[in-house]
Amino acid sequence: MSRSAAAVHRVIKAYDVRGLVGEEIDEQFVAEVGGAFARLMRAEGARQVVIGHDMRTSSPALAAAFADGVLRQGLDVVRIGLASTDQLYFASGLLDCPGAMFTASHNPAAYNGIKLCRAGAKPVGRDTGLARISEEVIAGVPAFDGPAGTLTDRDVLADYGEFLRSLVNLTDLRPLKVAVDAGNGMAGHTAPAVLGPIPSVTLAPLYFELDGSFPNHEANPLEPANLVDLQAYVLETGADIGLAFDGDADRCFVVDEKGAPVSPSAITALVATRQLRREIGATIIHNLITSRAVPEVVIESGGTPVRSRVGHSYIKALMAETGAIFGGEHSAHYYFRDFWGADSGMLAALHVLAALGEQDRPLSELMADYQRYAASGEVNFTVTDAEACVEAVLAEFGDRAQDIDHLDGVTVDLGDGAWFNLRMSNTEPLLRLNVEARTAEEVDDIVARVSRTVTAQTPQHSEAPS
């Protein structure tokens, strides 16, 4: 069966597959994607594919259809069942085989998708396989004339938890009460297995029931509204720290003992210092949206900072190219060389717990060492002509811009610690703005100037900073 190019390209994006279930993604479609993925992996020498899925209602059937597409191409399938995305990456590394995770991450319940990887959790993005998969789905996946593969099941949850704990020194920590908001997502499945066995940790669970309809709030902690319940819960329970995970539990957001959110950039800087104590001079990757405090801290700690485009496939490729020990993004994705270069919010959480528990200061005081600038968070604009908007913004700041680079969108250095980045989203029809400066007042001024300029170009809707 062949499909229209427009329909396929709408769903197979820069570094994953994602769309509305029933309208853009169905069982037949994912079976074809599974077949195309299997053909690509078979040509590279793979013999089996490991498949996991999240708690969305549509996930089991879609994962089964994908598995059927793989089996028909002669590759074996190992199913690990319910899993977080980083648990799937663990299985890919453990079994040394390609993997597919069925999830739409933080998107609403009506969506689903697939995150694909090669053996050892190596990324599959547009330039490393997704474009070829798109072409085969559009043209029709050729049949395989050999025998079908075999299907087996394997539970890796306990192994995953044990492996993560082995990567962080969790001995001799002071007692910690840890509030965890799973958002009815996969952290409700993985947090007890990873954090539960730590003697110094007492879990205070919130919304651990797996429910792909997300009855309490969206599983997207990047939006401040979705952190409100955890912030209140931390204060209510007297927790030392709060952890919030997105739907597939690969991203971790942190709230301090006062209920205040901690910037993912500050978490990146904290974990970077811990990793650099293990390996002086190592490379640390940070995407271009993270705070300038990150490269500053890395240099001060004896490391080498390297900037990256936004997106997990880009950072993973750069991790492999440079041999970096760690990488972090503003969106709370954290990447570890010890974890096959893949991202694990749960592993980042273990590092934060270790850093907090091995000293006596509260988290708010500990993290103050890593928060040096004011930031806007991400401000999103829906626009009709992104290029015209960007050009107008560049003209607006032309008299002040000291440097402009185009690594990912445009990043404009305004001097004295102030800068902004404006870029098109890879996953949504949005123009995204991030601003940082030495004071909140200066940040607000820059955001207001950009907003006025974009508004003058196109009638649009501006979302609250996140």
Give a structural overview:
- The structure is a single chain.
- The chain has 466 residues and is α/β, with parallel strands linked by helices.
- The longest helix is centred in the C-terminal third of the chain and has 18 residues, at 440-457.
- The protein is globular.
- It has four domains: 5-156, Alpha-D-Glucose-1,6-Bisphosphate, Chain A, domain 3, CATH 3.40.120.10; 175-258, Alpha-D-Glucose-1,6-Bisphosphate, subunit A, domain 3 (Alpha-D-Glucose-1,6-Bisphosphate, Chain A, domain 3), CATH 3.40.120; 264-368, Alpha-D-Glucose-1,6-Bisphosphate, subunit A, domain 3 (Alpha-D-Glucose-1,6-Bisphosphate, Chain A, domain 3), CATH 3.40.120.10; 374-457, Alpha-D-phosphohexomutase, C-terminal domain (TATA-Binding Protein).
- It has 15 helices and 21 strands.
- Helix 9 crosses helix 12 (345-357).
- A hairpin with a 5-residue loop joins strand 15 and strand 16 (334-336).
- Residues 378-451 form the Alpha-D-phosphohexomutase C-terminal domain.
- Its cofactor is Mg(2+).
- InterPro entries: A-D-PHexomutase_a/b/a-I, A-D-PHexomutase_a/b/a-I/II/III, A-D-PHexomutase_a/b/a-II, A-D-PHexomutase_a/b/a-III, A-D-PHexomutase_C, A-D-PHexomutase_C_sf, Alpha-D-phosphohexomutase_SF.
- One of its GO terms (molecular function) is metal ion binding.
- One of its GO terms (biological process) is carbohydrate metabolic process.
